[in-house]
Amino acid sequence: QVQLVESGGGLVQAGDSLRLSCAASGRTFSSYSMGWFRQAPGKEREFVAHINRSGGSTYYADSVKGRFTISRDNAKNTVYLQMNGLKPEDTAVYSCAASPRVFSSSWSASSYNQYNYWGQGTQVTVSS
């Protein structure tokens, strides 16, 4: 079992940057692929980014490609989401998720039902 706790959200202006962190419990963090998802009010949960177990492979949603960077530090049991050039449409609750699966495509990595463990989420609000 993995417990995930996100932090780093907040209220920023358009164009600003934020770095989200997701700390995982347990000794097997490196056995999990990690993803970030977001959900805005009244909208469905949306895939943001994925990173494989070693950190050597990543996938991004088109809407964040070139602005967001996912990374992980397996020694610290933590996955990060660096968000640059934030836009008002990035406003959402951001959640990290862990999956024991190995994903060979962005399509499978972007499916929320492939992830077994979820954090409680952290609010990101971007004002215009």
List keywords for this structure.
128 residues, seven-stranded mixed sheet, globular, mainly beta, 3% helix, 46% strand, 1 helix, 11 strands, four-stranded antiparallel sheet
Explain what you see.
The protein is mainly β. Helices cover 3% and strands 46% of the residues. The protein has one helix at residues 106-109; strands at 4-7, 10-13, 18-24, 33-39, 46-51, 58-60, 68-73, 78-83, 92-99, 117-118, 122-127. The strands form two sheets. Strands 2, 4, 5, 6, 9, 10 and 11 form a seven-stranded mixed sheet that branches. Strand 4 and strand 5 form a beta hairpin. The longest helix has 4 residues, at 106-109. The model has no long low-confidence stretch (mean pLDDT 96).
Strand content: over 45%
Which structural class best describes the helix and strand composition?
mainly beta
Low-pLDDT segments:
none
> What's the rounded overall pLDDT mean?
96
Order of helices and strands: EEEEEEEEEHEE
Q: What would the principal axes of the Cα set say about the shape? A: globular
Largest sheet: 7 strands, mixed
Distance between the termini: 40 Å
Radius of gyration: 13 Å
- Number of DSSP helices? 1
Tell me the helix content: under 10%
What's the total count of β strands?
A: 11
